[in-house]
Amino acid sequence: MGSRRKARESALQMLFAADVSKTRVDELVRTYWSELGDAEVTPAAQEFATRLATGTLARLDALDERIRSRAEHWRISRMAIVDRNILRLAVYEFLHEPTPRTVAINEALEIARRFSTYEATQFINGILDAIKRDLDEEQPQQPVDTLDAEEQGGDEQSVDEQAADEQSADEQSASA
């Protein structure tokens, strides 16, 4: 499993805990990484997970409104805790991270397959696809510009390349 997938799963677990316990964000993050977090998560993945979780929690109202606009006949409070937090996490990533939206959807669906039900995966896919279409009309996502690897001082990859490599590795490990 790729480190960014692990980071997203960690962020989901933090969001779940916040949803259930209503703990302050700083305490939640500290407790998660000191007691619950996966010891194999790299520091960069920890930073990404923490940014996803704290960013999502800081913008819950706006994210929930965006989800509500496409979740016909569903109140956010009536959705399963895991499902609503997968949706929140993906929509946050759509709006505030350079991750390609299609990659964010695919990652959300993989996480839903692991932590939720088959029906929920279809539900999540439908809502995220509709929100992606809305956002593509409102603000088409531009490719992420990166400096050449030499200029960056190493073999750094663009976010698009990292995401594509992650998805390829995840698909290979799933088929093994």
Task: Give an overview of the whole structure.
With 176 residues, the protein is mainly α. The chain has one domain: NusB-like (N-utilizing Substance Protein B Homolog, Chain A, Orthogonal Bundle), CATH 1.10.940. Helices cover 73% and strands 0% of the residues. It is built from nine helices and no strands. It has helices spanning 3-21, 25-36, 43-58, 60-68, 81-96, 101-115, 118-138, 149-152, 159-175. Helix 3 crosses helix 5 (81-96), helix 5 runs antiparallel to helix 6 (101-115) and helix 5 packs parallel to helix 7. It is globular, with a radius of gyration of 16 Å. The two termini are 12 Å apart. Mean pLDDT is 83; it is low at 145-161 and 169-176.
Order of helices and strands: HHHHHHHHH
What value does the Rg take, in angstroms?
16 Å
* Share of residues in helices: over 70%
Largest sheet: none
Distance between the termini: 12 Å
Approximate shape: globular
Write down the oligomeric state.
single chain
- In the CATH hierarchy, the third-tier topology is known as N-utilizing Substance Protein B Homolog, Chain A
The count of strands amounts to: 0
Uncertain stretches: 145-161, 169-176
CATH class: Mainly Alpha
Superfamily at the CATH H level?
A: NusB-like
Mean pLDDT: 83
In the CATH hierarchy, what is the architecture at level 2? Answer: Orthogonal Bundle
| Binned strand content | under 5%
Give the arrangement of secondary structure elements.
Blueprint: H1 3-21, H2 25-36, H3 43-58, H4 60-68, H5 81-96, H6 101-115, H7 118-138, H8 149-152, H9 159-175
